Amino acid sequence: MAGVDKHGTTTAAGVVVPAVPLSSGKPMxxxxxxxxxxxxxxAEGDAAGVTEAVLRAIAAGYRHFDTAAVYNAExxxxxxxAQAVRAGAIASRDEVYVTSKLWITDAHxxxxxxxxxxxxxxxxxxxxxxxxxxxxVSLRPPEAQGRGPVxxxxxxxAMDMQGVWEEMEECHRQGLAKAIGVSNFACKKxxxxxxxxxxxxAANQVEVHPYCRQxxxxxxxxxxxxxxxxxxxxxxxxxxWANNNVMDSPVLKQIxxxxxxxxxxxxxxxxxxxxxxxxxxxxxxxxMRENLDIFDWELTDDDRRKISDLPESRGNYNFLVHESGPxxxxxxxxxxxxxxxxxxxxxxxxxx
Length: 352
Known about the structure:
Largest sheet: 8 strands, parallel, barrel
Helix content: 25-40%
Site (Lowers pKa of active site Tyr): 101
Domain NADP-dependent oxidoreductase: 31-308
Structural class: alpha/beta
Order of helices and strands: EEEEHEHEHEEEEHEHEHEHHEHHHE
Pfam family, one: Aldo_ket_red
Family: Belongs to the aldo/keto reductase family.
Strand order of the largest sheet: 4-5-6-7-11-12-13-14
GO molecular function: 3''-deamino-3''-oxonicotianamine reductase activity
């Protein structure tokens, strides 16, 4: 189990969220707030909903905010932070930790720095605290911008990882990203990146919950000084990348009942106890606060043993697998790590 962090911020809400030092930049608060909507910002009212949710999250005590170019939420997040500063809810932009991600259409040499500059323009900020490569694959850039699928499988191509990472390093050198890292990278892909990286990735953000425990990857990252950050700790019910096993689990429901907690709190606490950072996401104010109420209690050894016996599977499973692409099987995509999963149909992904 993780020890107590030396860093931490006591917010106006009275919540102390511990933070963990990374290999560069400022310490990352261990619990963050996610801004991805199920439609990735393509539904009417999504932007206003994100802005309002972030303002409520700041009031509840969150200071770590996770976004991405593909979420179409960067402007809404930036607006909320600016409003919070004007209202005196936070002293300055520097009081929050902001992560964004390079989408696969821009994961090409020559497109990384312009993509980050566009992200910063959207956010209305001079820098992000952490900038991640969203996936270990690239997509041929579309001829026309607009709504529709965010992944067209037949257009998936192998990433020039060295060329892209060199530009990520340049983003860091220019001070536009205080730390750089990756997302959805399994061990072999990380090993390849580390073979040429002058600046190693500070973090790797991946799916983590009691049904997708990532023990092998966590150990790999720990040895190499890379902070694991878990998304979908509750299984992301209602999204294209959902793993419905989590919230429906009789085992987790029983643990929650035994502890006098919710299933959500059990899941977030479990990820926290692994030493990971964890990105929660609820736009409901009472659940936002509930999701932060995980620091002053622990799971029992028996609870942990029951969780370690659960069958593993992914929600983010095969969206980037295609017979013409660089990853023709789930085993290729995830380096043979946790290869069971749910194949969810979604208009956000097209095979044609």
